[in-house]
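If I may wish for something, please sit down with the protein I am sending here and say whether tokens and residues agree:
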Amino acid sequence: MRSTISQAESAALSAQAFHVGESSVAFQAAHARFVEVAAKVNALLDIAQVNLGDAAATYVAEDAAAASRYVGV
């Protein structure tokens, strides 16, 4: 996801040179909104990454605890 956002940012910066006048102003406004949303998406991805790490650690700990209580037949 982050690489896709980065690629879109690069493409937008390359395309910016083709806009002049009112088109340039509209492009800059849209790009500013894109940058704002991209920052929010990256923040959410950071939160998700932390939560997945916590969940994985909890799962492994619970699984190990359950395995130690398991009595084979």
The chain has a mean pLDDT of 86.
